[in-house]
Amino acid sequence: MIYFDNSATTKVHPDVLSTYDKVSESIWGNPSSLHKMGENAYNLLEQSRTQIANLLGCQKEEIFFTSGGTEGDNWAIKGTAIEKGIYGKHLITTMVEHPAVINSMKQLEKLGFEVTYLPVDKHGQISVADLKNALRKDTILVSVMAVNNEIGAIQPIKEIAEVLKDHPKVHFHVDAVQAVGKGLTDLIMDERVDLVTFSGHKFHAPRGVGFLYKKAGRKLAPLLSGGGQEQNLRSSTENLPAIAAMAKALRLLLENETNNVAHEQAIREKIYDHLQKFEKVTIFSELGDKFAPHILCFAIEGVRGETIVHAFEDQGVFISTTSACSSKKGQVSSTLHAMQIDDKIATSAVRVSLDENNTLAEATEFNRIFDDIYQKFLKINS
Amino acid sequence: MQYTEIMVRYGELSTKGKNRRNFIDRLGFNVRQAMHDFPKLVVKAHRDRMHIQLNGEDSTKVMARLKQVFGIQNFSPSIRVERDIEAVKEVITQMVAEKFHEGMTFKINTRRSDHHFKYDTNELNDMLGGHILKTVPGIKVKMKEPDMILRVEVRANGIYLSHETIDGAGGLPVGTAGKAMLMLSGGIDSPVAGYLAMKRGVDIEMVHFFSPPYTSEQALNKAKELTAKLTPYVGKIQFIAVPFTEIQETIKEKVPSGYLMTIQRRFMLRLSEMIAKKRNGLAIFNGEALGQVASQTLESMAAINDVTTMPVLRPVVSMDKNEIIKIAQDIDTFDLSIQPFEDCCTIFAPPAPKTKPKIDKARYYEERLDIDGLLARAMEGIQVTDIKIGDEFMNEKQADFAELL
């Protein structure tokens, strides 16, 4: 079996799972309880927070645990809208964001907010000039993903941050769900960035846990009101086993980041080099530093993405149509659509997404299987 | 830029006449204490300036610590180069180029403490200024308020280059104004009072009253952690925990509820005085602010203060709560202070304390108590802890979780 669908979710690391189990079994007190069991749980919670903050080079008070990427995006956007709605009703994002961002924006539009969706070029990147033009006096938020989940394009976060230095009141949110452990920490933790969404299950932690970085001093309204956890900004009894597991997963991932990135790049390059030889193949993810090391999106002209996915599955290789969230709805990739790729090709797109446990041998095997599949479809289509 | 040295300019010290030497020595000592975990650092406190040789230690971290040491007006990170004009040229170009932005202006400010160097001040200004104009295109010279002032200091052992002057914490070196006790609860006000005392040079020791089982281990740890937050200004602080359970239980049993608080406070003050005398303290500081709570009316202060002739100093007495909170946030004690653990001031708080207690009544009710015995037993149970920069008490069990995380 070859698992090449790590942008959909990753396998929980065995050591991470063991933390989850041990905490569930032995540190199950409520961190808010006053007694020793509560105190113990509280200490573990805060140490998990400190560990994550240290790994990312921020303060522990800037880390807020959430249920994952969707919540983080919703919170950053709607929380900003609630907090700063009296100062302005204009938000800026891109046409290629994850649905958690796009649909939060759509919801806000119904409530009277105005949203600018920035277009992207053929590399999937927005233009900083467009952003500059879109900024208005009443803009309260700019939300841009670090790494696109469908094709792996890296957005020009540094340049956006530079522009926003002249607009200090605008919240700058970065969805970094696909960017963790990919050698991009400096980019996503830029000093002008105010809010960053992280999701645990994309880096070998369990589902249902994530965190939001919120720069100290930036105000964000809570979406979950209640018992006052997480500095009264995100109530709900803390999911301690998952939080501790996530802290461990992040440590394990970042310990070897440089090697991992080089390794994933090498695998991706091997597949890329192979695929580009085929006439009917279009590759959307380019090599080089404008794209993340782990995502490779391509299309075989004339074959639907879904068909390609199943053909690979028959050979024990798991890939996906462009994003797990849209794949079941049979929609065309929103990123490719925004890149103005012809629908005929866009419907044929599939995504290979790697993690540090994949191997070059798997790439060789993938390439071999690809040859078979390609030949088969060539026959059928001709 | 890899800085090699930090040059420190003294604050009010310069006006202190004969005591100057003491002040400088003390400041040197405090800086060394504050940097105890940077072993390679060498601190040299000279008459007019202090030089801190980094010897490879991280200048950013050292400067962050230095910013908190009282008695420093400002400081400049600098780079030492050999007394070779070509070497100087190379480094200043690099320094300027690193910070260069469109339209930037600069000037050179040379100072020679060693007059044997072959160029004089004006020659150096000309040569170096000319070199920068040549090597950094687009930069301009400006004498009044330039964007960057490059300081070049020629000393016997090398030439020192710097361009940044960072404000220090001001105030007086802690310890130069003598020693005093701070009555530290777990609240917002007392750490602020302690900070302000230290700012004027007072060496404070913390006196904290705890009443197990009415107060928890966490409350005690919280007070220790608050102390740790104040250590960067001095290096280390003694934390004196005084058991208060028996006194509180006795008072609760024998004194009418309206006077519970007044008499408890009188005991605390007596104990603080005893500790101060034992440890050569000259005064007692606390975080009382007028009108905040029942114990903080003038009548109440008078009734409590009645037990001692030692100066009781209240740095925040006339501040508004918001002003106190602002300082607490600046010194990073606020978030800790508002954590909800019962401390010994809150657990026996009577429902309706007298806001205008009378001194003679307080004295009268105390006649029923074995004051000396209670005090002596509390003094016997005192525990002293040495608290240093970076100590943590709220997260003590770090090791336990190493395997999980």
Descriptive tags:
heterodimer, A: 382 residues, alpha/beta, Aspartate Aminotransferase, domain 1, Aspartate Aminotransferase, domain 2, 2 domains, seven-stranded mixed beta sheet, four-stranded antiparallel beta sheet, 13 strands, B: 405 residues, VC0802-like, Rossmann fold, nine-stranded mixed beta sheet, six-stranded mixed beta sheet, 14 helices, elongated, iron-sulfur cluster binding (chain A), metal ion binding (chain A), Cysteine desulfurase (chain A), PyrdxlP-dep_Trfase (chain A), cysteine desulfurase activity (chain A)
Return the structural class of chain A.
Answer: alpha/beta
Put simply, the count of helices of chain B is 14
CATH top level of the largest domain in chain A? Alpha Beta
Note the gap between the termini of chain A: 31 Å
Mean pLDDT of chain A: 94
Radius of gyration of chain A: 21 Å
CATH architecture of the largest domain in chain A: 3-Layer(aba) Sandwich
CATH architecture designation of the largest domain in chain B: 3-Layer(aba) Sandwich
Give the radius of gyration of chain B. 27 Å
- Count up the domains of chain B: 2
Point out poorly predicted stretches of chain A: none
Give the oligomeric state of the chains in this entry, treating copies of one chain as homo and distinct chains as hetero: heterodimer
Major sheet summary line of chain A: 7 strands, mixed
Domain Aminotransferase class V (chain A): 2-363
InterPro entries (chain A): Aminotrans_V_dom, Aminotrans_V_PyrdxlP_BS, Cysteine_dSase, PyrdxlP-dep_Trfase, PyrdxlP-dep_Trfase_major, PyrdxlP-dep_Trfase_small
Family (chain A): Belongs to the class-V pyridoxal-phosphate-dependent aminotransferase family. NifS/IscS subfamily.
Cofactor (chain A): pyridoxal 5'-phosphate
